[in-house]
Amino acid sequence: MKIEIQNTSKTYLNGKKALMDANITLEPGVYALFGENGAGKSTLMKILAGLLKPSTGKILVDGQEMSPLADAYREKIGYLPQDTPIYSNFTAAKFLSYLATVKGVPKQDVQTSVMSALEAVNMTEHANKKLKSFSGGMKRRIGIAQLLLNDPELLIIDEPTAGLDPKERIHFRNLIASIARKRIVLLSTHIVSDVGSIAREIILMKQGRIIKQANPYELLDEIATEIWTVDVTDQELLELQDTYQIGSIQQTRQGKNRVRIISSQMPHPKAVQDEPQLEDLYLYHLDERSKSA
What we know:
alpha/beta; 2 domains; Rossmann fold; six-stranded mixed beta sheet
């Protein structure tokens, strides 16, 4: 499956331009959608999910123009918002069986679809347990399972790791990597490290526009000379914070502050260049201070 979003914009009735001239090409693999609140991520995802009609532009599926509101398009889509309602007194199997019926899975195929979805998310042993007993990570896996019931070709997931502990986040990342082998998976998140490592491409959005779309390594190469580290005193740290974008601060054994700085110029006489990370990429493109320093 190949999806092309061409010159797509969305202006709401109040005049707010939520999405402006978006152009994206999606093929099987994981796409990480990064941006601050209000950047247009949710609008883009809702358009792709067939929940919102764009003001202008078009969507091509395998080269053919298709309305995101058409049933033929929606059958190819699985959408999981951040807050997905579940029926806590249902068992996992009963809940998924209900959703399979709603999604139009033929009655004779419901059980097979449910068990296949549970197996895909490593939850078969919990099939007959009530959802109210599940942890946040288990509920999120059930959310992914419901997406797989009708075997969609495009999965759209909003804030997939919100509320999960570190162990659950690792399990979720591995799960997404495995199910994306033959599907397009579009993820929106604020936790860059959770999905950046498995992303085929990273899409950066700012103020309703897509400002970057590329392979993570290509994007990191672009800022290879912009990342610095230096050990400084508390007073020096305050001075640096007034001028530069600070990526992170760590205490050293000597009682100093090891500061990671994003800047196009050497921020301190003792600063040395460091290898860029995905968090640096996020700050570099989405925080104006890193550009002005």
